[in-house]
Amino acid sequence: MKLSAFKFCKHNKNYLLKIFDYTKVPNNEKKFIIKGKYGRSFYQCKLCKHIYSSHAFSIQNLYSQQYLELTYKNLNGIKKRFKNVTNLPINKSDNKNRAIRVDSFFKEKKLKLLDVGSGIGVFLHEMKKKKWDVSGIEMDKRYVDFCKKIKKLNVHKKKLEQFKKKKNFDLVTFNKVLEHVANPIKLFKLSTKFLKKDGIVYIEVPDIKAKTQGKFRQEFCVDHLHIFSPESLNYLADVCGFQTLQIKRIHEPSGKFTLFGFFKKKSNKLS
């Protein structure tokens, strides 16, 4: 067994059990151009229940041009998707519920937010409407150009480790981001550089509860390297130097099984 994901839980590899195997491209999967023979699997830790991926092929290029073009086709497709998503009523919108959830967590208003992996900017757009001072980081220049030039959102084409802050933030958000990176510890820890003293990190990730619905759920798509349990998300926060304030399970309007959590950097007493 060779995992594509970094095994961050403390349990021995002997506790990993293969739960899903894919020998051909599922019908609901985006038609990525993949070099080599298709094959991938998911393994679950028997103790913390975290799920790790294993791929027989390289997934490094899935987020180059392929992802945007397969999802939106072009700039007009991005514009259309943004309009459709922002026009959804609250009871059908993951993003509007996320914005309400995050905004209501804070007593103070007009706070500063850094969103890592902003995509087409829907979450930033919703938070800006709630009077937050919003900034974002996104790797694809086409998303950045759409956010900055068309939606007037302060989004930067940078990796988090390359981002030069001009200010510290009250909140750093990772919305459906950590499941896409091999080592989520590295990215989570980096957030401390950008937080105010009492700043908060908000995270959303796929929930292992999706396993009960079978292997063809969107939570088990080809570009997901991790699927989290409440225990593994709490453990991730702990090893990154954060105190868990809240972790909850939700079944989103889109049908996704999701875990969300709020986390605060540990004080010296808790470290």
Describe this structure in words.
- With 271 residues, the protein is of the alpha/beta class.
- The chain has one domain (61-265): Vaccinia Virus protein VP39 (Rossmann fold).
- It is 24% helix and 26% strand.
- The strands form two sheets. A seven-stranded mixed beta sheet has the order 6-5-4-7-8-11-10, with helices on both faces. Strands 1-2-3-9 form a four-stranded antiparallel beta sheet, with no helix packed on it.
- The longest helix is centred in the N-terminal third of the chain and has 12 residues, at 75-86.
- The radius of gyration is 18 Å and the shape is globular.
- The two termini are 34 Å apart.
- The model has no long low-confidence stretch (mean pLDDT 92).
Salient structural properties:
271 residues; alpha/beta; Rossmann fold; seven-stranded mixed β-sheet; four-stranded antiparallel β-sheet; 11 strands; globular
As for the CATH topology, it is Rossmann fold
End-to-end CA span: 34 Å
**Radius of gyration using CA atoms only:** 18 Å
Provide the CATH superfamily: Vaccinia Virus protein VP39
SSE arrangement, N to C: EEEHHHEHEHEEHEEHEE
Q: Tell me what the CATH architecture is.
A: 3-Layer(aba) Sandwich
Q: What is the mean pLDDT?
A: 92
Low-confidence stretches: none
Strands of the largest sheet, in order across it? 6-5-4-7-8-11-10
What spatial form do the alpha-carbon principal axes imply? globular
CATH top-level class: Alpha Beta
Helix-strand makeup class: alpha/beta
Query: Can you count the beta strands?
Result: 11
User: How many alpha or pi helices?
Assistant: 7
Share of β-strand residues: 25-35%
Q: How many structural domains are formed by the residues? A: 1
Biggest sheet statistics:
7 strands, mixed
Helix content range: 10-25%
